[in-house]
């Protein structure tokens, strides 16, 4: 890379380069930079720009509350309350089911209200559960985030568990062509399928933008909106971020960046954004391989690497909470075009285990399903 990303952000800005200084890009929590304006990075899926700040998001007009049913004003506050993002299908709906079976009151959230309500109804009917509630949440929409936070504050006054599960794959796919290739799962997991799938998986700039925007920025914004409520937890707050095998740093070709990412103490959100800006610029200019970025699902891989890094940053800032990330396994879901081998029931186990972890459990760690892994 032309920037030495192993240095601090300030040092990177003074390095000679033909690219614009990465430190010139302000945080998207304030205003879009020239690059972000040009690429429509923020709020791609909703076609709305994020709030100028978290405080502004909380103060924005609140959209109508979307719930399957209203609770009685006299209903007791649950001992443990969880929010699951992207909870209407795949691993997310299984996390909701398994937490509810353990006695946790679960707010299942989904961007699509109709699909979210249908998911709650199916869980209540098929598993005989009454402790799952629906609330609409688009993690890229400031008003939607504020609506959920305000509802929880008004109704419950606290939050105990946040499972950040919502995500996208970051590529356009010819699914019929992909199925015809019949790629061995071991090839997927090793990353050796990168060249095999070039004809059926298209890496586009717009899809990369959507992927980073959803998988990292959306996760971060949703977490920030709910942090004040997590701090009020009466049972000890838990945050679980869904990661991926693609996030493991051994898959990062750039050695200097790989070593830098291992040092979480030297990173913050501004530096993460600078790195992602450079990644997008290299993608736009066809320089991914030359610059040493991951070539197997590059945007998805980068989004999950920074989710791991953000997890460690949060854990350092909030030692009173248990904050971890988890690779659910190669699960057969829509995000991987059903190429996985594990059922969603198994993929949910790691997140559920961490959500119910004891107060002296691990924090700032990466788990490969239910066992501690080595992402860095």
How are the SSEs ordered, and which strands pair?
Elements lengths: L8 H6 L19 H6 L14 H6 L21 E4 L5 H12 L3 E6 L2 H14 L5 E5 L5 H14 L5 E4 L7 E2 L1 H7 L3 H6 L10 E2 L2 H26 L7 E5 L12 H7 L7 H16 L3 H4 L6 H20 L4 E6 L16 H4 L1 H7 L10 E3 L2 E2 L4
Parallel strand pairs: 1-2, 1-4, 2-3, 4-7, 7-8, 8-9
Antiparallel strand pairs: 5-6, 9-10
Helix pairs in contact: 6-9, 9-11, 9-13
Model description:
- The relative contact order is 0.14.
- The protein is α/β, with parallel strands linked by helices.
- It has 15 helices and 10 strands.
- The strands form 2 sheets. It has an 8-stranded mixed β-sheet, sandwiched between helices. A two-stranded antiparallel ribbon has the order 5-6.
- The chain is globular.
- Helix 5 links the parallel strand 2 and strand 3.
- Helix 6 runs parallel beside helix 9, helix 9 packs antiparallel against helix 11 and helix 9 runs parallel beside helix 13.
- The protein has a single domain, classed as 3-Layer(aba) Sandwich (Rossmann fold), CATH 3.40.50.720.
Summarize the structure in short:
Residues 1-31 are annotated as: Disordered. The protein is α/β, with parallel strands linked by helices and 376 residues long.
List keywords for this structure.
NADP; alpha/beta; disordered N terminus; 15 helices; SDR_fam; 10 strands; 41% helix; oxidoreductase activity; single chain; oxidoreductase; 376 residues
Helix-strand pattern: HHHEHEHEHEEHHEHEHHHHEHHEE
What's the architecture, going by CATH?
3-Layer(aba) Sandwich
**How many discrete structural domains?**
1
Question: Strand fraction band?
Answer: 5-15%
Q: What's the mean pLDDT score?
A: 80
Beta strands, count? 10
Major sheet: size, sense and barrel closure?
8 strands, mixed
Specify the number of helices.
15
Percent helix range: 40-55%
Can you say what the CATH homologous superfamily is?
NAD(P)-binding Rossmann-like Domain
As a whole number of angstroms, the C-alpha radius of gyration is 20 Å
Based on Cα principal axes, name the global outline.
globular
Structural class: alpha/beta
Strand order of the largest sheet: 3-2-1-4-7-8-9-10
CATH topology: Rossmann fold
CATH class, please?
A: Alpha Beta
User: Alpha-carbon distance between the termini?
Assistant: 20 Å
Which spans of ≥5 residues are poorly predicted at pLDDT below 50? 1-74
């Amino acid at each position: 890379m032309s920037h030495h990303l192993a240095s601090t952000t300030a040092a990177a800005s003074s390095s000679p380069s033909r690219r614009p200084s990465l430190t010139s890009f302000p945080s998207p929590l304030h205003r879009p930079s020239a690059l972000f304006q040009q690429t429509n990075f923020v709020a791609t899926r909703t076609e709305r720009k994020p709030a100028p700040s978290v405080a502004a998001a909380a103060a924005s007009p609140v959209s109508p509350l979307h719930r399957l049913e209203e609770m009685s004003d006299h209903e007791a506050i649950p001992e443990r309350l969880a929010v699951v993002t992207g909870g209407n299908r795949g691993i997310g709906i299984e996390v909701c089911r398994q937490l509810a079976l353990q006695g946790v009151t679960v707010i299942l959230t989904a961007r699509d209200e109709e699909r979210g309500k249908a998911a709650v109804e199916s869980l209540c009917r098929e598993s005989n559960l009454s402790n799952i509630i629906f609330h609409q949440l688009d993690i890229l929409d400031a008003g939607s985030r504020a609506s959920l936070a305000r509802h929880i504050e008004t109704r419950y006054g606290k939050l105990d568990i946040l499972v950040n599960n919502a995500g996208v794959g970051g590529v356009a796919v010819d699914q019929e062509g992909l199925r015809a290739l019949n790629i061995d799962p071991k090839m997927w997991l090793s990353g050796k399928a990168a060249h095999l799938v070039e004809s059926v998986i298209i890496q586009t700039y717009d899809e990369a933008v959507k992927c980073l925007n959803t998988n990292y920025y959306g996760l971060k914004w949703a977490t920030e909106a709910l942090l004040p409520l997590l701090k009020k937890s009466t049972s000890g707050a838990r945050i679980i971020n869904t990661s991926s095998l693609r996030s493991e740093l051994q898959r990062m070709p750039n050695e200097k960046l790989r070593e830098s990412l291992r040092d979480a103490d030297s990173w913050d959100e501004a530096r993460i954004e600078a790195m992602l800006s450079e990644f997008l610029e290299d993608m736009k200019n066809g320089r991914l391989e030359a610059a040493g970025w991951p070539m197997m699902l590059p945007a998805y891989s980068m989004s999950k690497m920074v989710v791991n890094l953000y997890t460690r940053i949060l854990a350092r800032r909030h030692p009173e909470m248990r904050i971890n990330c988890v690779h659910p396994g190669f699960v057969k879901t829509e995000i991987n075009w059903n190429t996985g081998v594990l059922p969603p029931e198994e993929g949910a186990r790691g997140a559920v285990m961490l959500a119910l972890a004891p107060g002296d459990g691990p924090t700032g760690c990466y788990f490969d399903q239910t066992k501690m892994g080595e992402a860095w």
